[in-house]
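Dear Dr. V.,

Thank you for agreeing to look over these. As mentioned in my earlier message, I'm a first-year student in the group and I'm still getting used to reading structure tokens, so any feedback on how I've presented them would be very welcome. I ran two proteins. I've put each sequence directly above its structure. The first is here:
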Amino acid sequence: MAKPSPSKYWRLASQSKDASAIDCSGQALPIAAVQSLRPRHGVLLAEWEPSTQLGRVRRLGIVRSIVGNGSCAAIDWAECEIGLRPNPAGRRWWTQSKPFFGFAPDVAARYGLDDLFAEHFPEFSDLTFGPAPKASSHDAGPSASPTGGYIYVVRSPHGFKIGKTVNLKQRTKLFEVKLPFKNSLEHYAWFDDYTHAERSFHRRFHHKRLEGEWFDLQPDDLEAIKCEGKHIPLEGLR
């Protein structure tokens, strides 16, 4: 029988320079990161250590509830001293300037995070958790002034990006220049309200979010996305 464990893991910088950082159970965290947290999520406060090429974890946390209309998180903390060694592809997440990112399930498994949290929080199965925050009415419905455009999915070794654009050709050329890793256009489709469509996809796959618009999607997730919208072929794109 599987051990009770957090449903998702996040790395947060332990020394955030974010001016909007807020106090969450005695720890200053960037508000953008807090807004991604949900009850039952696991948090690793960690810094990148260039000399050893390790992610140095100082504290582990379990999110008990989201409070203050989603602006703060109640977190149980445990002190630790652990080094995590990412593979070459994973180092970019640790060395980026953004102070937080989510661990993909396979990466969490490779680091043994379930066992790590079970060791530091043996009472996990007895904890009580608050409900996940409800989506705001702003996110729930179509846009007040719908605009047509493309929803696209970009494949990379680090996950899938779900984004929107009016000029798809220009956007894909930008990826070729700006993204420092191999990527390819997996899918695109036209939506009469592309803002609402993007928001809906992000909300549907929020539990698989890696960071920003990047998600850990599986083949059935991709098939579900490809069933929606209108596929209007563009010259030069498949």
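The second protein is here, in the same arrangement:
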Amino acid sequence: MAMFHRKEFKIHGGQIGDSVTDISYNNISKQIDEGLKEQYTQSEVIRAVLRIIKPGHFKDVLISKDEMSINELKSFLRLHMGEKGTTELFQELITAKQLEHETPQQFLHRMVGLKQWLILASKQKDTEIIYEAETVQNVFLHTVYQGLSEKHEDIRRELKPLLSEKSVSDDALLRQVIRTTGEESERRRRLGRNPRAKYAYAQRGQVTSGKLGDSKEDPHSRSKDEDMQKLSAQAVL
């Protein structure tokens, strides 16, 4: 009996090029989701998407990404297949900030994707304005520092030495964010436990002190002392 071989996952409807694309983002996104529902692995789906991308800068960027996830792939596709020009992307990078429900790690991922897309867009022949990679990197580092929420001041402080190095890698920044976030979570967990323990200990101490105090002020003891004093006075008389 012949072994069952599952068909290779494919994306249908057109191809994606650096400047011309004949398939919509919604179309390709829907096919990606359907592939995942059919139990194809992320690697199989990503390979299928790469097969419909024509050779060029965009494909080179995607291929250079190590262990790219489906969400990251979709982010790149959304940016590439949109109509944003380099000027709009540059302004977005300058003014970006961490969203209310966005973690520091998610914010950094978003900024990395925006930076890479701006560099890629600047390499296109018909681009409106060309931004040098060094300029984009400097703006990126500044935005990461200034764009982090005030409630993550500890992460900003730990990132500052790295952000002062213009050649710092995205992976180095990500590792530092993950490390600092983990350390802060552990610190809060410990601090959250100690106050409760101290409070319980203080309560036990108060109860113990209260019992000792009550025994000293025992009315029966005072009554016995008074009786003894009266008997002593009578004996003297």
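From my reading of the second output: The two ends are 124 Å apart (CA to CA). Residues 194-201, 207-216, 231-237 have pLDDT under 50 and may be disordered. Does that match how you would interpret it?

Kind regards,
E.
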